[in-house]
Amino acid sequence: MTTTISNTSKLNSLKKAQDATVLLRADHTLVGGLFDEYEKKPSLAKKRQLVAQICAELSVHAQVEEEIFYPAVKRALHDKELVPEATVEHATLKALIAEVEGVEPTGEMFDAKMKVLGEYVKHHVKEEQNEMFPKAKATDIDMAELGAEIAERKKALFAQRS
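RESULT FIELD:
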């Protein structure tokens, strides 16, 4: 009996780990931490590394949301507000990413762009986590299946970026 409980427990934790909103929240946490590191005014070399990682993480995250998560949420909720707003926010994030990605991270204007990008991401994350995710989880969307699809696509996108 202990083995069955243990196996069930493992299956549940594996399924939970693949939950789409859990994966997307983990991305949010990771990027938030990277912005926090940037705010500590690291060395130029560390800034370069952080900016490159922030841009890669945000770009891949936005792409999987737009390709996989948002369409599923839009269909399930018959949404005409949350997903379009999030998509517009992504466009603004992409424009800011384009202004800092591959650029030498020096000067007050660069730091200002990173500050605004971080604040904008924080705003976007708050809306997703407080509004979109709870509504999405209340639907019949198979979050485990969606999470597996997102994880696979992220893996492919990061491989393309390497």
